[in-house]
Amino acid sequence: MTARSRRAVLVLALLAAGCAGPRASTPIDGPASLAGTWRGRMSGPMGQAPVLLTIEEDGSYRGILYVEPVYRDVAGVISVIARGRVRYEGTDGNGRVTLHEEAGRRVLRLVRDGGGGGAELTPAK
To answer: Where exactly are the structural domains of the chain?
Structure first.
């Protein structure tokens, strides 16, 4: 394979990887647009654990986190500061909130300030 054909293969691979990457954030108009039950995984200093959250129309949320061998209550509130700027404040810390559409499903991400954890959730069925 010539140097030119190797470069062409590399460029095509990079383009394909870029197309498969995460989608842009979906705007969150208000906490009511997130209302419902969400499930996924939460990570933090103690590791990763399954979590089930119910978000109310006012942005308050309650849920349970299974940190083996016990369940732990989590609670907080999601606030829309401005279009494109959404924050959460809860028992497991504070951070930003993003919503994405990936492969036809909604993905809610809570990203803790300063790193070190957060959550990735999808609507519970």
So the answer is: 23-123
Pairing of strands 70-82, 60-67: antiparallel
Question: Residues 6 or more apart from 63 whose CB is under 8 A from it?
Answer: 51, 52, 53, 54, 73, 74, 75
Q: In the CATH scheme, what is the code of domain 23-123? A: 2.40.128.20
Give the tens place of pLDDT for each residue, 49-93.
999 999 999 999 999 999 888 899 999 999 999 878 999 999 888
Quick check: 103 pLDDT over 60?
yes
- Beta-carbon count within 10 A of 123 CB: 14
Global pTM value: 0.77
